[in-house]
From TrEMBL:
Residues 1-20 are annotated as: Disordered. One of its GO terms (biological process) is regulation of DNA-templated transcription. This is Two-component transcriptional response regulator, LuxR family. The lineage of its organism: Bacteria, Pseudomonadati, Verrucomicrobiota, Spartobacteria, Chthoniobacterales. The modification 4-aspartylphosphate is found at D73.
Amino acid sequence: MKSQPSQASSERSRSESRATSIAVVDDHRFMRDLIMSMLRRQDGRYDVVGEAADIRTAVALCEKTKPDLLVLDINLPDGSGIDAVPRVQEVAPQTRILLCTADVSESRVVEALRSGAQGFVEKTNTWDAFVEAVDRVAAGQHYFSAESAPFIDARYHGVERATASTAALSPREKEVLQLVATGQTSKEIAQKLGISVGTVDVHRANLMKKLHLRNVAGLVAFAFQARLMAPG
């Protein structure tokens, strides 16, 4: 007699094969339609549950649908998509967020990292790169595309590797790193830690050297991936 699969096994199988639910936010109708159309052609892997053209509608959409993934444009008519990240996380904490932009700059990359978004992709990328970003962020990983390389050292995209690298840092260097990553100036850090500005600058230089980084964006990326900085 053939054994029947258990209810738990059937539910697990359905869960594992369930399409990733996605909401798309962009103020340009053409771009929204293009993204949604292409996602719907991916062999049923994605379920587009809604769209929005501004932050207010996007937050309401996420509160209602609780999508697995939100594709969020940065330039929106009622504000920055980066600033919308904590609002979305408040109403839909399980929703992972992939930020999109046509403007790649160090400040944008740093702001994206600090916001708590799980990914950052440029609209100038290929469709394949965009799908990779969607797949990785939906799977619980972080994604920062190759165009961000001048600002983020790619070696720190892995949490395990970044965490291991913190062993080379002194307790004071970790303190300075956390404060730099939250956007504080050398003067503010010096006041907070009770040390001189010159000492802070020495710690910053040592951090760059030990971690093989070139700029503040790299430090922010490292702090984020090593979980020295809380998202949001």
